[in-house]
Amino acid sequence: MIRSLFAATVLACSTLAGTASAQDGGANAADLAKARGAIKGLAENLRPTLVNAMKAGGPVAAIEACQGAAPGIAADQSTAHGVTVGRTALLVRNPANAPDAWERKVLESFAAKIEAGAAPDTVDFGEVVEEGGRKTFRYMKAIPMAAEPCMLCHGTELKPEIAAEITKRYPQDKAVGFTPGKLRGAFTVKLSAN
Ligand code: HEC
């Protein structure tokens, strides 16, 4: 049913990138809109936090600011949108963001699609699954690696003071070595399906 709703988008993306992936996975339009709204809310609240912290104190201070603020912002947006929203990745900085089995599968498919030439900012996937006896809609949207400012903290050659601060705060960090256009991670949403 939502397929028709997305026909135009899919067409537009196909024309541009040769592939498209807005998938409803059996969800209704309202649930999909809710999931996307929560992602928008999270992205729009994370961005100024990072940018302002960088402006105020530079990247080393911004690492501390991110560590302090990111989990709370995700929790607030989850409450505000009545869903669970967060970020995950195959290679995580914060171990609390590690993917579960479903998320890992989706991340692997995202990476494959991007390797095959899909434009990273068009890659998403949704599916209605059964969790604990409840119908649950799960949805993910790729987060592409960008040059600015991402390379400072997730790139291939970190400045020593930035690398040191990251290792101090995230001794198990795996979220380095990315180049622009690659899959950095994904937004992930879960909600009770209607
Ligand atoms: C100032 C350093 C800094 C910059 C710049 C930065 N990040 Fe991060 N990033 C972090 C930190 C610190 C975390 C861990 C936050 C936490 O504890 O939840 C993180 C976590 C993430 C995560 C969540 C998954 C994980 O690894 O834990 C994603 C996805 C992510 N960053 C993407 C990006 C993207 C895309 C950009 C560029 C737009 C970017 N980051 C720029 C420091 C940075």
Written overview of the protein:
The protein has 194 residues and is of the alpha+beta class. The protein has one domain (2-8, 19-192). Helix content is 51%, strand content 18%. It has five helices and four strands. It has helices at 2-17, 29-81, 101-115, 150-154, 160-169; strands at 84-88, 124-131, 134-144, 183-192. A hairpin with a 2-residue loop joins strand 2 and strand 3 (134-144). The radius of gyration is 17 Å and the shape is globular. The model is unreliable at 1-22 (pLDDT under 50). It binds heme C.
**Number of separate strands:** 4
Strand content: 15-25%
Total domain units: 1
Percent helix, as a range, is 40-55%
Average pLDDT over all residues: 89
Keywords:
alpha+beta, 194 residues, disordered N terminus, four-stranded antiparallel beta sheet, globular, binds heme C
Which secondary structure elements does this structure contain, and how are they paired or packed?
Blueprint lengths: L1 H16 L11 H53 L2 E5 L12 H15 L8 E8 L2 E11 L5 H5 L5 H10 L13 E10 L2
Antiparallel strand pairs: 1-4, 2-3, 3-4
Helix pairs in contact: 2-5
Heme C binds next to helix 2, helix 4 and strand 4.
Sum this structure up briefly.
The chain is built from 5 helices and 4 strands. With 194 residues, it is α+β, with helices and mostly antiparallel strands.
